[in-house]
Design brief:
With 343 residues, the protein is of the alpha+beta class. Helices cover 36% and strands 22% of the residues. It contains eleven helices and 15 strands. The mean pLDDT is 94.
Length: 343
Amino acid sequence: MSVNPTGTVVAPRSWATPEKHYLTVLENPWYRSLAVLQDIVTHSTTEFWTKRGARNLHLPVTTGSISSPMGRGSDSSPVQVELEGVPTYLADSMQFVLEFGCRLAPEGSYYLMPSFRGEAADETHLCQFFHSEAEIAGGLDDMMEVVEAYLRHLAGALLTHGREAVTGMAGTVGHLEELAGSGPLPRIAFEEAYALLKDRPGTVKELEPGCRSLTRQGERLLMDKFGGYVWLTHPDHLSVPFYQAFDPQDPTKALSADLLFGVGETVGAGERHTDVADLRRALELHEVSEEAYEWYVIMNERHPMRTSGFGLGVERFLLWATRHDDIRDLALLLRFNGADILP
């Protein structure tokens, strides 16, 4: 067992030798503690949504219409596979289907399930990770308030049921106590953040005019300014996926927000289009073919509903909870794209 001078358990970095990783998981106390934290997140997520009357949905992990499509506004690469000769995708998210679920469960729909991304893994990204996602009736502000309540609930659950595990990995639970007892978290609109950071090299990236976003460095500077937590709201519409609603005050902006804490963007939230004409306009603006999303357009046309949703990267949340610096140490079983790893 490897322990720091402070008494905390050291992550074994066994992702560097994936063929032996499973043995390390069975033999190293880091992973026994990780199993405890994963279980707490699952139970407390179900508890949170059950109290609110939301419904858990059993959803597939394959789809023909990915929710972060390639093209403008995409921050991920889809994972395409072939099943019995049919090209399909492993879901990067099932946010679309949670919108579908809201039509069945008006108090909200949620899940906690794997997501797949085409990018290579690094300190902040996994090729396969767990997503805690939900959709509710209401607007962006409603969703942001629910996200904050959910995070306070998760932090409280870790304090109650996982204090020893967190202390062993992080050396403290002070950050959990801070979040569990927090009030409304600070917010800043993208244009305000851009004005603060635009003269700082390496903080903003611009793929094309009207399609700007913050780099990891920019996110860190913003988090430092606001004490560790900040909502970055109303980004350029071209920088987010097409399904985020237009800001009625400025259609070049989206009714969406990222909650920055820990490694940076850990929660993404947004309101959806309620007008089918806006949805079609967004598809055209983002240069996304309507063909694969015809079902989505028809659903919104026949069953209109104002909804908003969010996605929390569970491993990113646990990276923050354990005060760790490499997300590859937060997977019990590794999966790297292009690699055959057993079990």
